[in-house]
Amino acid sequence: MDRIARYLIPFGVFLATFALGMFLLSQHQALRVNKESQLVQQVLNTQESELTRRLSYSLSSTYLLAQEVARTKGRVENFDSYAASLLARMDGISNLQLAPDGVVSKIFPLKGNEAAIGHNIFRDDKRKDEAVEAVRRRVLTLAGPFELVQGGVAVIGRNPVFIPQEDGSDVFWGFTSALILLDDLIGGAGLHSLNSSAYVYELSRIIPDTELRSVFASNGDSEGVEMQSIEIAVPNGQWELRVGLPFEQQSLFFHRLAEILSFAVAVIFGVFTRRIAVEPEKLRKQVAQQTQVLKKLAFFDDLTGLPNRHNFNESLDRRINARSGDGKVTALLLLDLDNFKEVNDTLGHDMGDVLLIQAGQRLSSVIPEGAKLARLGGDEFVIIVSAEDVRTVTETISQDIIQTIGRPFDLQGNSAHVSASIGIAHVSETYNCSASELFKCADQAMYEVKRAGKGGYKYHSEDIKKKIAVRAGLTNDLRQAIEEGSLDLYYQPIICADSGRIEKAEALLRWNHPSQGAISPVTFIPLAEESGLIHELGEWVFKEALRQVSHWRNTFNPKFQISINVSPVQFQSEGNVANWVDAIRNSGQDADCILLEITEGLLLENNSRNAETLALFKSAGIPIALDDFGTGYSSLSYLKRLDIDIIKIDRSFVNNLAAGNEDLVLCQAIVSIADSLNFKVVAEGVETQEQVSLLSGIGCDYLQGFLYSKPIDRVAFERLILDSPGEDRVISSAA
Question: Taking a C-beta distance cutoff of 8 angstroms, is the pair 479, 411 a contact?
Answer without folding.
Answer: no
